[in-house]
User: Fold this.
Amino acid sequence: MNRRLTLTLAGIGLGSGLLSGLFGVGGGIVMVPAMVLLAAMAQSRASATSLAAIIPIAAVGAVVFGGAASVDLGAAVVVAIGSLVGVQAGTWAMPRVGDDRLRIGFAVFMVVVAVVMLVS
Assistant:
């Protein structure tokens, strides 16, 4: 990995970590588009890399917010169980969908979420 790519990825990580701590987002919403657009990664590789990178980010966030009594542990367990099932379906489907459709589907999903959040 060259120096420029290393710095780009470090910047993506810094921004993702900041937004993760602030808004509870970072992996898919920040890292994936940034790695696709700024690091020239394929959509599927960016998604997989984001899942690997989010582990320590989520752990630190959980510890910090848990220490502040901000975590609903019961809800976190239920969401985690559902996510463990869902991620297996998503990782099975990803290579079958293809990067172009993944990128378009992801963009549409982000727009829909943004509109729903703005009007609710």
